[in-house]
Amino acid sequence: MDELVTRDVAVMEEGAELLRFSTCGSVDDGKSTLIGRLLYDTKSIFEDQLAHVEDVSRRRGDEYTNLALLTDGLRAEREQGITIDVAYRYFATPRRKFIIADTPGHIQYTRNMVTGASTANLAIVLVDARQGLVEQSRRHSFIASLLRIPHLVLAVNKMDLVGWDEGVFRKIENEFRSFASKLDVQDITFIPMSALNGDNVVERSKNMPWYQGSSLLHHLENVHIASDRNLVDVRFPVQWVVRPQSQSQEHHDYRGYAGQVAGGVMKAGDEVVVLPSGFTSKIARIETFDGDVPEAFPPMSVTVHLADDLDVSRGDMICRPNNRPFVGQELEAMVCWMSDQPLSARGRYAIKHTTKWAKAMVTSLQYRLDINTLHREEGVPQLKLNDIGRIGLRVSAPLAYDEYRRNRATGSFILVDEATNNTVGAGMLLSEPR
Predict the structure, then answer these.
(1) How many helices (H) and strands (E) in the chain?
(2) Is domain 326-429 given the CATH code 3.40.50.1400 in the classification?
(3) What is the C-alpha separation between 334 and 347, in angstroms, rounded?
(4) Does residue 220 or residue 15 have the better pLDDT?
(5) CA pair distance 300, 317, nearest whole angstrom
(6) What SS3 state is found at 76?
(7) CB 276, CB 313: distance < 8 Å
(8) Which residue, of 105, 113, 207, 418, has the fewest CB within 10 Å?
(9) How many CB atoms lie within 10 A of CB 3?
């Protein structure tokens, strides 16, 4: 019977807070197994899904139900035993709703890890207790730091294979703390576990009485994320100018600006400025699908009505007059390169920033980062697939932007190859160029 068994009907209530998290780490550290365990132990899978996984496990010759198959959805992944693409899964508990991005572990798919983690509130970096920290552990931790993911969990997996030895866990914990001191990470939690057996995943483990912390699920349910959003700087990129579809008198004067709030708290009556034009007005009202609201904040999608009839277009930014983002055409950024065709100085691309498109040219390639040593390699001629480096850009139209560390929404962009329409780079804007 195809019934989705949930722990409590309350999980589906509208008010449940959403946590986005990604799993990352090296190949075969147990990322897919961990997510399968979370889905299984929270009773968030269909009965026919479980039956199918059990059947595939038997045909593969596994001696146990391979929960990793719940997320390794591609046939190629199952045959090779690795995760290739980013697998997104949803589950919920009475406290929260969750969206999981199971990102690839192999170095060849670092770009997919960037994609999966770009919107995450939290990143789980898995480490095999037998192997300790490896290159990909450091690589993914650095990328999580670069992407400004506010919360990091180092999950030391496969503790059952090292006899639940506290010494092994503490050694990895201390080594990672030393490495993380070089990163910009504010909140790190360390959890020893066995994803295969479920120890410290949903329930506390009896096999590790020396560990006094919470289980992974308890941490995911209780980690504080409300203050992670920027509620200080009002940022509203206009996605659509809404005009009436009929000529009736009732809708004749209707004009609104639809989009998603990217920062700050907007209220009716607030004075605002539209960038890059600099026109000023006041917010007349804020409209949602369910009617008007007194205020809006991230990540609400709303339609803003202004008191004055201004010339506002898609891609413009509404903000407060005394709290403006940078506006410019000369940009400095860190970029993760995602194309087989290398990035080089003078390269030309389309750039998408918030809701605005423009043309962009690479004016400089300042350095490439060695993610293992965090050393800056200057004088490199190009960035290759999966490389991360600092570049300068010149864009064809002014962009209203913030430094990425201040606002992830208004501080990020993508570069697109106009010939193929492929996304070739993901960037994080730095402070205003000198």
Answers:
(1) 7, 25
(2) no
(3) 16
(4) 220
(5) 16
(6) helix
(7) no
(8) 418
(9) 8
136 vs 109: CA distance, rounded Å: 11
Question: What pLDDT, on the 0 to 100 scale, is given for residue 338?
Answer: 86
* C-alpha R_g of the chain: 24
The mean pLDDT of 79-88, rounded to a whole number, is 49
Q: What is the pLDDT of residues 316-329, one digit of tens each?
A: 999 999 999 999 99
- 143: pLDDT strictly greater than 70: yes
Q: Do domains 9-228 and 326-429 have the same CATH topology?
A: no
Q: Which residue has the higher pLDDT, 247 or 124?
A: 124
Q: Is the dihedral of CA 147, 151, 154, 155 positive or negative?
A: negative
Whether residue 80 has pLDDT greater than 50:
no
Q: CB–CB of 138/25 below 8 Å?
A: no
Domain boundaries in the chain? 9-228, 236-319, 326-429
DSSP labels, 333-380: EEEEE--SSPEETT-EEEEEETTEEEEEEEEEEEEEEETTTTEEEET-
Residue 157 has pLDDT above 70, yes or no: yes
Helix (H) or strand (E) holding 242: strand 240-242
Determine the pLDDT at residue 303: 96
Fold of 9-228: Rossmann fold (3.40.50)
pTM given for the model? 0.79
pLDDT tier at 252, thresholds 50, 70, 90 = low
Q: Side chain identity at 55, as an amino acid letter?
A: D
Closest C-alpha to 116, from 42, 215, 45, 32: 32
CATH superfamily of 236-319: Translation factors (2.40.30.10)
Give the pLDDT confidence score for residue 1 in this predicted structure. Answer: 29
Residue-wise pLDDT for 22-79, tens only, equals 888 776 767 777 887 888 777 766 555 556 555 665 666 665 555 555 555 433 443 4
Contacts of 229 (CB under 8 A, 6+ apart): 263, 297, 298, 299
Name 416's bridge partners. 350, 423
For residues 165-199, one letter each, b for 16 or more C-beta atoms within 10 angstroms of the residue's C-beta and e for the rest, the string is eeebbeebbeebeeebeebebeebbbbbbbbbebb
User: Which H helix or E strand runs over 75?
Assistant: helix 75-80
The 10 Å CB-count burial string (b at 16+, else e) for 335-347 is bbbbbeeebeeeb
